[in-house]
Amino acid sequence: MIQQPTLDFLSDLEDNNNRDWFMANKSRYDTARENVIEFTDRLIKLMHKIDPALSPDLEGKKCVMRIYRDIRFSKNKTPYKNNFGISLPTTGTKLGGAEYYLHLQPGKSFIAGGYWMPEANHLKAIRQEIDYNAHDLKAIIDAPEFVKLFGNFTNQEKLKSLPRDYAADNENIELIKLKSFIVMHNLADREIKSPKAAETIAGLCSKIYPLNVFLRNAIN
C-alpha cells in the first residue's frame, strides 16, 4: 500500500517546488520513492496473472518515472513533478503501445490503460481494425460495468475532420476519429492507502485488459 508519508511528501513538494527545499528533504523523497517501488513490485506480480504480456521480470524501479520535469520547452519552470507516475508496459520495458499507467497524487490518483496518442502507423492499423471489427471493440467498451468504471469511451480527443479514407456516414466514425484509445478511473486516497490497494488496482486493470488486447492485436 502507499504510505501516508508518501502522500505528505507530495503535498509538501507541491507547496515548495524548488531545488533548495527538495534537497533539504531528499531523504523524504528517497523513502517515498522506495515505498512506490515496493508497491509497484507487488502490483507487477498481480498484473502478470491478469495480462501475461506484462513480464513478471519487470522491475518496479524501472517502471516508476523520474520526478524531475523537463522544463526546456515549458512555460512552467517548476523543477519537479508533484506526483509519482508508474508505467506498466506490455511490450518489454520500453514505453509506447497498449499499457497500464498508475498516477499517484494526493486527491488526484488514477489508474489508466489503453494506447495514448499512437504513432502514425499504429493509429492507421487501429482505425482499420475498428472499421473491420468494431463489434469486438464495442462489446468491450459498451459493457455496463466498463461504462460504470470508465465512462463513455468516445469522450476523448478526436479529429475535427474526417480521417483519410473514411466517410462521414461510416457507422463507427466517432471511434475511428479518436486520437487516443484510453480509459481512466479515479482512485481515492483511502483506496491507495488500503492494505488491499494493489489488489484493487489489479482488479481495475483486469477490466482494461480486453481493451489492451484489442489494441495489441490491431498493431501486431
TrEMBL record:
Highest taxon listed in the record's lineage: Bacteria
Family matches, as NCBIfam families: TIGR02453 family protein
Protein name from the UniProt record: DUF2461 domain-containing protein
Organism of derivation: Mucilaginibacter panaciglaebae
